Amino acid sequence: MCILFFFGPQSTSEPSSHSLSHQPHLVSSPQLPSTPPQYPQLLPQSLSQPPKASFSLAHHQPPQNCIAHFILNTTAIYLSLLSSSNQHQHLPSHPVMYNRAPTTSHNEDNDNGLFNRSTINGEQQTSKRKRVRPGKNVKRWELKKKTALQPFQATSTDPSQEQEDEKGISSTHSATQSNNNNTNNNQKEKIFVYLVPPSHQFDPKPSEAITTQQTLQLYQHFTHGTCVAAPRGEPPFCKVKYVPFDTMSAEELQGWEKLVCHFFDRTNYVAAVKNNGPQVDGSMWADGWRKGSKKESFGRYCSVGKLVKMMLLANYNPQDEAASIKEASDFISIQLQHLAPGVFEKYRETLIENNLPSMSHMEYPLPYDALDFASFLTFTMFDFHNGPHCDTDANHWTLVCWIPIFNPRNCSEDDPILANDDFDMLGGQFTFRDFQVCLDLNHVLGVALCVFRSRDYTHQTLPGASPSGKYTRIGFSGQMSEAMSNAVVAHINGTAPFLEVAGQEKQVSNAQKKL
């Protein structure tokens, strides 16, 4: 900054006795007043004390020219203000803002949105500023997760029903196994909830009859733990739980081994299903009750030719067969109750309301017990896969399970039943194309249990294979046929004049005629 000093003609007037350095004001005449005027304090208290300047006018002798005195005084004041401003420029300009009065807020609806009504120091104030609710998004997502888990939770609160269920469980299993299952069921379970965004609620490749592994890279994969999938803001369509073999107790492992052996044994009495529409490859069997192919008859799945063969080998005992079927049915029922009690209740509701026979019943009709839930089951092996489809069964929710095992066609007598650490299956995923969700069954060596809405959404089992040929996977599901329901209704109403019900006794009688 450059300051130019202009000096006018010399004045003969004498300066005032008051020091010119203390007169920061403009004078109207060369004659200075004897008493300095009083000015209001415009600066903050902290700035009212002028800082030390780089030079001082106190020890200078005032020049004789009054205009020169004025210019020097004005310059000194300007430099003092400039220096003070630089030193205090970071001070808050409104200290009152840091001592806020206590307030209370309320919400008030209006035509233009939401007002914020506040009371400050007893005075009510209103503004249109949007209110921020801490944790609002967290609470919203928690509510959606709670909605997604609700269908899997039990709704029955009848104490007599609970006692009946406990009695049914304890009567068919040892106390040790029941206690272990109850302990595991009561532990806090961590569940991953996947809310499918709208951008993923479509089939990315509808032209593919069999979804390729490349297309699966677009899908959300479930590989371990317990997972639930639901469209965002809608009810869920799937829950899956992966149970590794190395986390099971000895009793649990034995239970799964006995179930696999039961399926092997049933292939000696029932023929493979030939007319399954969606099936592409692999083998499928069915066991339990079904509608007959002629008129309005129904009975248990049985191949009379296979039954005759077993009777000739003296390997058939009706009581042992009934006990084995009952034990397997109860074991599956308990797994379903632990996975999704709410789905188990829906199963039982459909079974009882339609007067359908339970798959554990050898004759019809028989009274239900606490573990009855489905009429029949299907089980698959040897790289079974199918096309995309929706089911037409009476049950809206379906239980499905996959168990990795040694291939019974290629294994030796020394091989165990359940697969070991060398399990090398590839593929075989279970998919929901409309939501781009995939259940990957190859990451956990153990059992995968799943319940899903089989009538409402397209699902598919993809091809799988074991490169070594040593392994395969058993998959089974519990169902109730809609056609079976119609046959039972006709039987109850008496609208089928030549109705025939084929239970175990009828099948044994037919086989004995061919001996």
Describe the structure concisely.
This protein has 515 residues and is an alpha+beta fold. The protein is built from eleven helices and 19 strands.
Summarize the structure in words.
The structure is a single chain. Helix 6 packs across helix 8 (318-339) and helix 8 packs across helix 9 (341-353). The strands form four sheets. The chain has a ten-stranded mixed β-sheet with strand order 4-6-7-15-11-18-10-8-9-19, with helices on both faces. The chain is of the alpha+beta class. The relative contact order is 0.12. It has a domain at 145-149 and 165-512: Double-stranded beta-helix (4-Layer Sandwich), CATH 3.60.130.30. It has helices at 66-87, 136-149, 159-172, 175-186, 213-216, 250-266, 304-312, 318-339, 341-353, 482-493, 504-512; strands at 103-110, 113-120, 123-127, 191-196, 220-222, 226-231, 238-244, 279-291, 298-300, 376-386, 397-406, 426-427, 430-432, 437-439, 446-453, 460-461, 464-465, 471-479, 501-502. The longest helix has 22 residues, at 66-87. Residues 113-125, 150-160, 169-178 have a biased composition (Polar residues). Residues 127-138 have a biased composition (Basic residues).
